[in-house]
Amino acid sequence: MKNPIASKAKPAASRAGNRNKAIAARVDQELDAFPYGSATALARALRTRKVSAVELLKATLGRVDRINPRLNAIVVDDRERAMAAARTADRLLARGELLGPLHGLPMTVKESFDLAGQPTTHGYGPMRQNIAPADALVVQRLKAAGAVIFGKTNVPLFLADFQSYNEIYGTTNNPWDLTRTPGGSSGGSAAAVAAGLTGLEYGSDIGGSIRNPAAYCGVYGHKCTWTIVPKRGHTLSRTPVTEVDLSVVGPIARSADDLALALRVTAGPDLLTSAGIRFNLPAPPRSLKGLRVAVWADDALAPVDASVRSAIHDAALALRAAGARINFDARPAFDAPAAHATYVTLLMAIMGTRRPDYEEMVAARAALAANDQSPRAQQLRASTSSFKSFAEASNRREQLRWAWREFFGSYDVLLAPITVTPAFVQDQSEPADARTLIVNGVQVPYFSQTFWAGIATCAYLPATAVPIGQSALGLPIGLQIIGPELADRTTIWLASQLAKLIGGYVPPPVD
User: Could you tell me the CA-to-CA distances from 57 to 53, 202, 288, 379, 457 in Å, in that order?
Assistant: First the structure.
């Protein structure tokens, strides 16, 4: 399949191509932050005019044209409008006008966000011509802060897989090993960030879709507290829709500081409630000394590979050595299987109702035999749940929220896995629910690891994915830091502290 963005590249022998190569070489030489440094450092270089927005965008696009064909991470190209935005950013800065903290920064967003004039498909073939008439609210806020958005990144069909492939844009590969998945559903996002193809990214998460690919690709990702960043424009619908339960949007980056920066410019209520609502997120702790850290590193519902468990254990010990108080046995006061069942009921119902083929699913459910308990039958029933079933699950979820509130009265954060293994070899076999993962030499159900996504998602908790090392095969390993509702600044802060203790993002071998 022809890569849509690579097809825009200039011929290598052309005069324009040679100029762009020269610009890229100069930017690479002069900026320590390019291509693998933080967005924060790149934005600072732009503000201090060490590099112009046009120069940085050209260098970024040159890198995209060279590396993206192997990854297929960036699949929607908007470079012409981006170049116009970069020129505007340079003119404004020359007059002393600063749009915001992202002034001139080249970045991308997940395919599922509306970008005016570009398709939003969620990887679904019949939606190829679903052209967005306006930017999603997150895109508007990023642009208002000065970001130059030059494209969108790949997703799985309906944003519902730990891999990122679809019939429209093809398969995205992991920059650490092209045979392996970058994760999903923000797989193109994490791959592009890890490979230095974009300064910053914005993804979305309902079943680990930010945290899973961040862990597989060795970058940072933040699942926000539910609703603090509005999702308007993150849908296949062309009309405003209600704030979808469980689902959040959030940043993916090469440093925790970048997560904090992106959250700062995108968080806040939408227009319907902005007259009276403000989010005053609690400040993070000042020190690791005395920080109360619980660790939940394994569970029978979703067994975790020894390589991941060991890395989480080592990260916890590093925090202990820095003065934190670590408890490996603390758990919130609820039954884990029941909590997971509540999450799955809510998740499947939400995922089902946003699919364009929902009516076909309802018909398929009606045709099921009463005694059919196959995985497909269970999925159909959950995906077409009655309102009563959904309301009952929502009530059970409220009990979980209160249990977590009590737990976080004794602990500041919880460390947990987000993936049960490092990135696995691509597997596009169908049906998806028949796939398996190998954990400690044993086959486990493919979707069992949603347990780890759900412990934060179901109760609306913030969670930050953090790279914490590599496996014996040299693949990234990550964990998630979970905090109380609205403690987003705390989980991101601790991610930054961990990077100081054990190291953080490491560039993949793609150059």
Answer: 6, 18, 38, 44, 35
- C-alpha neighbours within 13 Å on the C-beta side of residue 125: 3
CB distance 499 to 255 below 8 Å = yes
Which of helix, strand or coil describes residue 134? Answer: coil
Which pLDDT tens digit goes with each residue over 167-203? 999 999 999 999 999 999 999 999 999 999 999 999 9
For CA atoms 49, 250, 411, 405, give the dihedral sign.
positive
Cα dihedral sign for 55, 48, 46, 85? Answer: negative
Alpha carbons 75 and 128: distance in angstroms, whole number: 13
Rounded to two decimals, the pTM is: 0.94
List domains and CATH numbers for the chain: 6-266 (3.90.1300.10), 292-486 (3.90.1300.10)
Q: ∠ at Cα 308 (307, 309), nearest 5°?
A: 95
Question: Are the CB atoms for 208 and 452 separated by under 8 Å?
Answer: yes
Give kind and range of the element (H or E) at residue 430: none
Contact 346, 394 (CB under 8 A): yes
Tokens read off for 193? 């960030």
Q: Are 505 and 265 in contact (CB under 8 A)?
A: no
Supply the residues annotated as catalytic.
110, 185, 209
Q: Which of 82, 96, 103 is nearest to 147 (CA)?
A: 103
Query: Of 198, 193, 195, nearest to 222 (Cα)?
Result: 193
Mean pLDDT (whole number) for 406-432? 97
